[in-house]
Each structure stands twice: as structure tokens, then as C-alpha cells.
Amino acid sequence: MSLSIRIIPCLDVTDGRVVKGVNFTNLIDAGDPVEMAALYGKEGADELTFLDISASSSGRETTLEIVRRTAEQVFIPLTVGGGIRTVKDVDRLLRAGADKVSINTSAIARPELIAEIADTFGSQVLVLSIDARRARTESGFEVTTHGGRQGSGLDALTWIEKACSLGVGEILLNSMDADGTRAGYDIGMISAVRAITTVPLIASGGAGTLADFAAAIDAGANALLAASVFHFGIHRIKDIKSYLGSQNYPVRTVATF
Amino acid sequence: MIAILDYGSGNLRSAERAFATTGLDVVVTSDRRTAIEADGLVVPGVGAFAACMKGLNSIDGASIIRARLEKARPTLGICIGMQILFALGNEHAQEQPHRGVGIWPATVSALKAPIVPHMGWNTVEAPKASILFAGINTESFYFVHSFAAKESVGLMQTWTTYGERFLSAVEDSYVCATQFHPEKSGEAGLALIRNWTKTL
Q: Helices A237-246 and A210-218 meet at what angle, rounded to 10?
């Protein structure tokens, strides 16, 4: 046996509600993050990610409360990202029940934040989230900010190598070109990142067909994150797992006791 | 009553809630007397070996664990809470390993695998007589670690392979430990917690 490929639903949360289109017939209150987290947990999610896109501090407080309520009833790892700028922000989230945090823009603005968090809580709590696109940088991949709307000029591979040396424990690689297209993950980007890092790699952006998930694993992804394909019920977690299992990829099936 | 030992090591809320699903009372405490007297003591832990030992030493935690052993009271170590039960840990200290509590005479060392940390769900090879894994020996559990013990210690050993074979659990009469996080291992983890609490 070996380590399972992780399937990770991502919930974008603002002011206490899941945004991004949600069309999940089995859910009565489709936009409640705690309810959705519990449902995905039952369906076999291997981890859950909350991305807090609240603009206000009251929105952030609400997210803390959602993390608390989720951690009380869903006993799988929970990653929270969005708006984390300081070690204190991380401390608050971990105390609320998060197991990991993901940072993006704040680490680009101040890379020392990576070392500060890793030194305080260990690398295993820290996921570096990168929104990258194909562009004319050294490696051909550029880091973007503001949800992919702005180029940073920063070369994605150079940034990943630096972030790893500062102590990130995992990389969440979002392809801004593929995001929302359902045309498949950016396989070239996943391979390029896999080649330069030895930490676990989560692929994100572009998942459409079941074969897309397998292709990302073949390119070196250790985990697969998706949002809309789950929220819209295009693929159920158990269907992805049974497909991958049939192709001899290691997956965790959910136990019932 | 179950006590979860609070020695400044990370998020204890998940552990508290997971152990509370057994219906037993759970307290998070750094109080010596409460920790020694509890029916069961859970020693959690996240972060680095040396940092955890520093935290443990600040509440004289090693003597709490030893006092419980003398009184035949069950203790369960989780993740780094397992690692610190060993004699030595060489995380960030290849030349001069850090001292652990020393319940088991082995060294916790870096996991040799192409991708670390070992992060995610993996299976276990548990002995038939295992109490912790009774009824759940084919399930997967959630691991997050870069170091592990690789020598056989205690009465019963459970192994996992990631790059190399390492100890994913030890059952040794009144002291047991898991390298994975049962409190984050879904239904299988909760079942393991129930199996442990039956021994209290």
C-alpha cells in the first residue's frame, strides 16, 4: 500500500457564506460552509480548504467562527487561507481549529513571513498558494496577484525555490490560465514545479474530466484541489476516487462504522 | 476522565473534540495532579522535537508520564507526542541528538523519502492482537511528519511504509502512541480513539 492521492474540495467563503456558484442538490442550505464541509467530509474528502475572501474584519471574525464550528464536527484536516499577514493571524486560526494555513500575496510582499510562521508552528502548517500563469519570465511561468488579475513580474519557479528554502511545507499551485475552463490542469506547469521541489504539491485549476485528475497525478501532483466541479455536482468525490482506484492510483475509501 | 496535556504545543481543540465523541469527559490541562490522576492522558504535539521537549520540560511532563506508568494508568502519545517518548531525536541535531522522555530506547530520525513531509492518508500493518486497530486494521490514517522511529520497541508494533518502513504505532501495556493523527483521521480515527478509551 502507499500514500493516497488527496482529493480536496475548496470552499470560498465571504461573510459566512460559500460563494462561487453552488448547485448541490443534496444540500438544503447550499451556501452554508459548515454544512458543506460536513457533507464533503462524509463523501470522502481527504482534506478541506476554506478560502476567506471577506473584505472586512467582521467577515474575518465570521470565518473564525466557521472554522471553529467545522473543526468541532469534521475530523479531517482543515486548511484556511485568505488575509493572513502575521504570525498572530496564524495563531488565531490554529486555535480556532485549523490544521494548516495557506498564504499567497502576503508572502510575496514580505517573504520573511514564511520563515516566521515555519519557525513558530513548524513547516507542516504552512501551505504556499501560488496563482501562476504562462508568461515571458525565465521559466515561462509568472506569479500573479489579486486573483490572477495582476502580473507580479516574479518568476514562479524562482519564487517557489525561495519559498521552500524559507520553510513552506506544501505548495498549492493554481493555474490562472486553466482556472474555470474545465479544459484540464496545466500539466506542463505541474511537471515544472515538481522537478524543482521535494515538498507535497497540490494541483488546482482546470479540472474537467476524470482523466484530467489522473493526468495531474502523472505530472507529479500529490493532491488535487477543486471547487466548482464539486459544488455543481459535476463530479462527486466518490466517483473521482472510484475512477482513480480503477486506474490503480492509491485512494482512500471512506469507512463507515 | 481524559486529560489532554497542554504544554504549549499547537491546536488542542481538535483533539479535545475528537476524544469527547467517546462520551467521556475531556479536559485540556497542564496541571500536574489532573494529568497524573486522569483515567487516560493524551500527549499531543506539533512542530519540532526540541521545541516540544522544551515545552514538555517546562511543565515537568516527563515525570508526569513516568508517574502514570508506575501507577499503571494509560497514556497515548500522538505525532510528536509519540516521538518525544523515545530516547533520542535528531531533528535539527545530527551530531548531538536531543533527549526525549526515554520510554523506548530508539532514535527518531529523518524519514528517507523523495517527498517530505509525509503528508496525507496512509495504511498500516497492525499485529493481529492489536487493541488500538481492532476492527480497523485495513483503514487509512492521516500522517503529517518528516521524522520517525524505525526500530522495534514495546510489546506490539504497527508499521507503515513511506520511502522506508517506520513505526506508525506502538502498544506497550500502559503507554501507546501513534505517529498519525487519529483526531484527524475521520471515522477510522474516531474508532481508534474508542478502542483506546475501552482500555481505560
A: 60
Chain B residue with minimum CA distance to A68: B13
Q: Within chain A, where are the H helices?
A: 33-43, 57-73, 87-96, 105-109, 112-121, 156-166, 187-196, 210-218, 228-231, 237-246
Taking 60 as the threshold, does the pLDDT of residue A23 lie above it? no
Residue A222 contacts B where some CB pair is shorter than 8 Å: yes
* Cell numbers placing B105: 530506547
Q: What's the pTM value of the predicted model, to 2 decimals?
A: 0.95
List residues bridging with B144 in a β-sheet: B119
- In this prediction the ipTM stands at 0.93
Domain ranges for chain B: 2-197
Cβ contact, residue pair B121, A2, below 8 Å = no
| Res. A175 pLDDT band, cuts 50 70 90 | very high
Report the top-level CATH class of B2-197.
Answer: alpha beta
Q: Check if B52 is active-site.
A: no
Burial class (CB in 10 A: 0-12, 13-18, 19+), B37: middle
CB-CB contact of B43 with B81 (8 Å): yes
* Domains recognised in chain A with CATH numbers: 6-246 (3.20.20.70)
What distance in Å separates the CA atoms of residue B185 and residue B200, rounded to the nearest whole number? Answer: 21
| Active-site pick, A46, A131, A179, A186 | A131
